[in-house]
Structure formats: C-alpha cells, structure tokens
Specification:
The chain is mainly beta. The protein has 1 helix and 13 strands, in the order βαββββββββββββ.
C-alpha cells in the first residue's frame, strides 16, 4: 500500500472509546492517507499527483486532521514537496514551496485550524531544515535554524496554539564512519514571530 512511516500529530497516547470524536478523526485521516498513498504508488490516473510520470517517488509521511472536512497529508513528489488537502469529499494537491531544486521533503504536519497549519521537513538532501505555514490561502516558507554543517532535518511538528509550536529532528556537524552521520537532537520552537533552537539532551 505504499510507504507509510508517518508522524501524525493526532496519534492518540491513550486508548479511545470507539465512539470518541477524536478517534473517528484519527481513523478518517489514516484511512484517507492509506488510500492516497496506495493510489500514488500504483496509478497516475487516480493519484492526486498526476503532473509527473508514475516512476517518480510520491510517498506520504504524515497526516493531521482538525475535523472531518479539514485534513492535510504531506510528503514528497519527485524532488518537490507534496501537500494534499481533504475537504470532506476528496483529496486535492495544493501548490507548496520548495527550498532549492534538490530533494525537498515534508515529514511532519500539524493542524491548528483551517487558517493555521504547519509542515516541516528538509531540503537539499537533508542539509537544510524546511518549515512551511498555511494561512488559509497559501503556503509560505519560514526561515528556520540550521545549526549543523553536515545535516539538518525535521521529522515532526506539534502545534499547541498560534504562538506555541514545536518541531523536532536532527542535526550534525561531523560525518560518522562510512556512510553514517553522527547526528544530534534538534528541537525548534515558534513563539508567534520567530523559529529558534532550544537546547536538547543527546543521550
């Protein structure tokens, strides 16, 4: 059914009652993500990403839903970011910014409201963090820290409010043995005006 290593801001930390509204939203978002990913990996005729030949990789990595009629899924389409929106009836692809022309990817998304959505990932083969924001009309790219000289990437985001958003990932300033990279934890915080790095432990 495709590649689904996703990070969802709505994954519950407790067992929810089958009739719980939030539980239904999680099931809706996950079911839709599975369907969209299956389509994009099998047929360009039914995929929301028909712009390129089906040989391009089109994985989705994360999904977040604010309601039954407002959900976002993020990932990659070839070398570009991919953003899909669910309006209660169908998924559609929404134009999204890139940072450079090489390997732009979104790995996490968090919905605050219909006019406040954050998506995070990396660009230029994981050398720079990538943060995008939806204001209800369009997606915009926000400046974000890149403390590592070798690697910088974000894999998840959680938005508590318009002035309190957290993003996590990793960074590195030194290559490891062979093809590996000695990475450190990376935590960024949005205070309503600026993204800044917050010092985090490295066990």
């Amino acid at each position: 059914i495709g590649y689904l290593p996703g990070y969802s801001s709505l994954v519950p930390r407790r067992i929810l009652h089958p009739m719980d509204r939030k539980h239904r939203l999680v099931l809706l978002a996950f079911t839709a993500l599975v369907a969209v990913t299956s389509w994009s990996c099998t047929s360009s005729r039914v995929s929301p990403d028909p712009g390129r030949a089906p040989t391009y990789a089109t994985p989705l990595y994360s999904v977040s839903a604010a309601s039954e009629r407002n959900a976002w899924a993020v990932g990659r389409h070839g070398d570009d970011t991919s953003l899909l929106h669910w309006d209660g009836t169908r998924w559609s692809r929404v134009t999204s910014p890139n940072l450079g022309s090489d390997f732009n990817e979104l790995d996490g998304v968090s919905v605050v409201s219909s006019t406040d959505v954050w998506a995070v990932g990396d660009a230029d083969y994981s050398s720079r963090t990538l943060i995008l924001h939806w204001d209800g009309t369009r997606w915009s790219r926000f400046t974000s820290p890149n403390p590592g000289s070798v690697f910088n990437g974000l894999t998840g985001v959680s938005a508590v409010s318009p002035t309190d958003v957290w993003a996590v990932g990793g960074e590195s300033t030194a290559p490891g043995p062979g093809p590996y990279i000695r990475s450190r934890t990376l935590i960024l915080h949005w205070d309503g005006s600026t993204w800044s790095q917050v010092i985090s432990p490295n066990p």
